[in-house]
Design a protein that fits this description.
The longest helix has 23 residues. This protein is α+β, with helices and mostly antiparallel strands.
Length: 145
């Protein structure tokens, strides 16, 4: 019985050490999205690495109520690596990005690093940014309407 207790307490101690080491090396990312028009919601996706971005596999995502001016969104406990962010402003609150006949967005959208598309999708190299160990990252961008 005592062996089981010792083994269990050693496992718990190792798990706690692992969690505290992971938390000590984690970083936080804050996005300041300016030019937001009130009403609707902002759908924001954070991607880790180019492959995940190209495949649409978000590392983290959130939905916030749009408020006029600057909206700040934070992602906590992010591990080191290369990231990219994209968002859209769901002004009609239907959960989808509205587009016109040609597939062009009719609602606001944007990317990290304030990257702007140029007659086609924005290139990943323009929106990527690095997150280091135990770092506070602030990335500013503006909504494209």
């Amino acid at each position: 019985m005592m062996k089981i207790f010792n083994r269990t307490s050693n496992t718990i101690a190792a798990l706690l050490l692992s969690l505290s080491a992971q938390s000590a090396n984690a970083s936080n990312i804050t996005f300041e999205i300016s030019g937001v028009q009130a009403k609707g919601k902002l759908y924001i996706q954070l991607f880790k690495g180019e492959d995940n971005y190209q495949q649409g596999k978000a590392h983290n995502a959130t939905i916030v109520v749009a408020k006029e001016g600057i909206t700040k969104v934070s992602f906590a406990d992010i591990e080191q690596g290369e990231y990219a962010l994209r968002f859209f402003h769901d002004q009609d609150d239907n959960g989808e990005m509205a587009t016109n006949l040609f597939g062009m967005p009719t609602e606001g959208y944007g990317f990290s690093n304030n990257a702007k598309p140029n007659y086609g999708p924005v290139d990943y190299s323009e929106i990527k940014f690095e997150v280091g160990k135990d770092q506070q990252v602030v990335n500013k961008t503006e909504v494209i309407y």
